[in-house]
Amino acid sequence: MSVPLRIVLIASARFPVGEPFAGGLEAHTWTLAKALSERGHHVELFAAPGSDPSLGVRELPVHRPVLSPAARQDVSMPDAVWMAEHHAYLRLMLDLAQDGERRFDVVHNNSLHHLPVAMASALRLPVVTTLHTPPTPWLESAVQAQDRCPVTFTAVSAHTAEAWRGTAPGARVVRNGIDTRLWAPGPGGPYLVWSGRLVPEKGAHLAAQAARKAGRPLRMAGPVGDPRYFAEYVEPLLGDGIDYVGHLDRRALARLVGGAAAALVTPCWEEPYGLVVAEALACGTPVCAFDRGALREILTPECGRLAPADDPAALAALVPEAVRLDRRAARERAERFCSLDTMAQEYTAIYEELTL
Hints:
The protein is an alpha/beta fold. The chain has two domains: 6-177 and 339-355, Rossmann fold, CATH 3.40.50; 192-337, Glycogen Phosphorylase B (Rossmann fold, 3-Layer(aba) Sandwich). Helices cover 40% and strands 15% of the residues. The chain contains 14 helices and 13 strands. It has a seven-stranded parallel beta sheet, sandwiched between helices. The longest helix has 24 residues, at 80-103.
């Protein structure tokens, strides 16, 4: 094994890295932290308080601002959540700029916030930033504000790397890996499954429409990230075999996904990776999805079907084909393409390259 490294892993300051996960980013951060720690690296995690203590990593403090009544009432006062996140990341980066090189070997920014990128040139240790989304104005500005941005960028898919090519050329593709021990093969069953955050860009309502057109029951699981969307678009479709089963931890979710005939994946945006696709395949569950973003990088004809974007009728028409696919082929695709070991090895190789 290589020499153990001292790694700062920066996650969301809003959501803890613990179950039930707020979203795929938190689940991915948990998996990466665990994998690096198990390989002997010393990981210190910056995330919202309450992250999983079983990770075996040290949790860095998240500092919140203490604003005076006058500041809170000022016309320039932004949203309180935005202000809290800004203060937390600013404090972290100033702390690392002061003497971070004496305590750590590398910083891995796994968050979506702009300050770890904008302030990277103030640090005397290398910074790796993983691009998890399509380009955002805050991150593009953070890169362009520096004459020579010192950040090493990775992207979770070739699609995402291409989307960022104008701002972060040369971003290396390191696909998100999953723990195939946890996401174990399941027996399948009569129902379809949909999992993810219940927000407009994930399109749960389109999955419900497709399931109904296909004449199959559907079980949906995940956190309600947008209550208004859920109330207006999802709740009216519930009943008659379309069920919302709640926000599940990973073991319960793995059982649910493994017991499904097929998984529906219905992004209404250019999906940067598609962690739920990898999780379904690991459970041996074929996938029927909209052809958006990076999903065609993961799915092959042996383990899934792709329908035109935003077309639940076309998706429904492919369900009979999807449920007949070989569950062993789905599992094998996950083992080859979505390997946790591969992800951990590729990130470690980048860290070592930057610290030699």
